[in-house]
Amino acid sequence: MSQKFPADLSEFTVPGHSRGLIDALSYRYLLRLLIRKGTLTRYHGSVLGWVWSYVKPAAQFLVFYLVFGFFLGLNKGIDNFPIYLFSGMIAINLFGEAFGNATRSIVDNTALVQKIYLPRELFPISAVIVAFVHFLPQVLILVVVCLIAGWVPSLIGIASIILGMLIVVTLAIGLGLFFGAINVAFRDAQNLVELILLFATWTSPVLYAWTMVADKVSPWVFNLYLANPLTSAVELFHAGFWFSTTSGSLPQPPHLAAFSLIGLLISLIILAIGQLVFKRLEGHFAQNL
């Protein structure tokens, strides 16, 4: 009588079992396909194609500069106001597109979610990466303008820009996971996201100087304002791109490094919460779509 030995199942995984964001690295091939799909189909069928990645932010900048810089006079007291405005604007644009794309990512990929199993986190992550790809042309324009204005890159400045990007992307993924999961069952989530993006633009020092807030609110409210991850990210972009082109007419916010780390920590906490909510709700995605 032959002796039976238990089968070695160590190389197998339970079907439908996901390790969350870690699987985005394990399924790199699928992630690349989703990113490729997102970048190629964005302007599919349009006449200008990728030129829209330059036209849209340029038009937005022109409107903001004319209204807030020229007519309302907010450019007074801020050297190289166009660079100040555009460097903050592209940070908010990155957050807005990444957050919005991630929120819609599950619903936009209904066919895949219903038919096959793959880690659902791939969809919001790929959506954020696609937004980052479309953010790069705006950075290129800003770099060229900064160089013309006398920008001198430094290690601290480049580190500030990278940290600002990290805060924005982390926050967008966390909120995208949270609202993307909720959006599957309640499509009102997309409307709420639009309100959040509206507040994001006006509660960050993009169109105005941070000193205007400091002069109007109490110190503890101002500290909360600086602890906002988007405020830290915008000021980090200002520090990296704009500050070295000025004569110091507008100083950097107090304790920017400390508040930037606080902003990053808040973004990581939101990312953890978003992942937990996503994991809890993803089992109902197929039936709710």
UniProtKB/TrEMBL annotation:
GO biological processes: lipopolysaccharide transport
Pfam families associated with the record: ABC2_membrane
TM region(s), chain numbering: 81-102, 122-149, 161-186, 192-210, 256-278
Residues annotated as domain ABC transmembrane type-2: 48-281
Family, per entry: Belongs to the ABC-2 integral membrane protein family.
InterPro entries from the UniProt entry: ABC2_TM, ABC2_TM_bact-type
Membrane topology: Multi-pass membrane protein
Main location: membrane
Protein name: Transport permease protein
Location of the protein in the cell: Cell inner membrane; Cell membrane
Keyword list, A-Z: Cell inner membrane, Cell membrane, Membrane, Transmembrane, Transmembrane helix, Transport
Recorded GO CC terms: plasma membrane
Organism: Cryobacterium lactosi
Superkingdom of this protein's organism: Bacteria
GO molecular function list: ABC-type transporter activity
PROSITE patterns tied to this protein: ABC_TM2 (PS51012)
